[in-house]
Amino acid sequence: MQGGTNVSVTNKLVRIEPIQCAAVDQVVTLLGEKWTLLILGALTKAPMLRYNDLQRVVSGISQRMLTLRLRKLEENGLVKRTIFPTVPPRVDYELTPLGLTLIKPIRALLDWTIDNRAAMAETRLAYAKAAQRTA
Q: pLDDT of 56-101, one tens digit each?
């Protein structure tokens, strides 16, 4: 503890307060879940998708997992759920204005990943070989 503050050395270096760290942790946890980015990506393809259409587009996701992920995205203000009083009820999902602001940074991360995947794969291979030599 330096200067009578509780901010860690790492936090001082990157100038992030504990409350900001918690916010970053929440977003990384939300976006790091397997299905979240696929759902957000699907919702960029059409202005509004029905639940069943969304489940078809996000191939392999179970009904339960889709429901849980959509609820979490709605809770965080990224997705809007609209229920139409029809028989049977129709439920549509769309990105909120806040959700739309997330698409550009996600796209940048996707582009970075595609651009750097080969270099990362080479590094992983070299790391594994070095680890075998020292084992």
A: 999 999 999 999 999 999 999 999 999 999 999 999 999 999 999 9
Report DSSP letters for 18-79, one per residue: HHHHHHHHHHHHHHHSTTHHHHHHHHHHSS-EEHHHHHHHSTT--HHHHHHHHHHHHHTTSE
Residues 101 and 51 in one domain: yes
Distance CA 105, CA 37 (A): 12
Phi, psi angle pair for 111, to nearest 5°: -60, -45
Burial (0-12, 13-18, 19+ Cβ within 10 Å), 77: exposed
Domain identity same for 53 and 98:
yes
- Picking from 28, 111, 26, the residue whose alpha carbon sits closest to that of residue 75 is 26
* Residue that is written with structure tokens 């609820």 in the block: 71
Domain of residue 117 covers 34-134
Give me the CATH number covering residue 102. Answer: 1.10.10.10
Q: Is the pTM of this model over 0.85?
A: no
